Amino acid sequence: MATIKDIAKAAGVSIATVSRVINDLGGYSEVTYQKVKAVSKELNYTKNSLARSLVRKRSQTIGVIMPTVPTSFSNPIIDGIEEVAEQLNFDVIISHTGSASKYILQKIIRMNEFKVDGLIIISSQLSQVETAYLEKNDIKTILVSTMVPDSDLPYIKVDDYSAMYAITNYLISIGHRRIGLAGPNLQDKVAGQPRFAGYKKALIDAGIKFQDEWIQTGVFDFTSGRKAVRNYLKDAIDISCICCVSDECALGAISEAAANNIIIPKELSITGYDGTSLAKMVSPTLTTIKQPFFQMGIQSCSELIACINDGKVMKSQLLNFSLELGQTTKEKRG
Amino acid sequence: MATIKDIAKAAGVSIATVSRVINDLGGYSEVTYQKVKAVSKELNYTKNSLARSLVRKRSQTIGVIMPTVPTSFSNPIIDGIEEVAEQLNFDVIISHTGSASKYILQKIIRMNEFKVDGLIIISSQLSQVETAYLEKNDIKTILVSTMVPDSDLPYIKVDDYSAMYAITNYLISIGHRRIGLAGPNLQDKVAGQPRFAGYKKALIDAGIKFQDEWIQTGVFDFTSGRKAVRNYLKDAIDISCICCVSDECALGAISEAAANNIIIPKELSITGYDGTSLAKMVSPTLTTIKQPFFQMGIQSCSELIACINDGKVMKSQLLNFSLELGQTTKEKRG
DNA sequence: GTGAAAGCGCTAACAG
DNA sequence: CTGTTAGCGCTTTCAC
Question: Residue A157: helix, strand or coil by DSSP?
Answer without folding.
Answer: strand
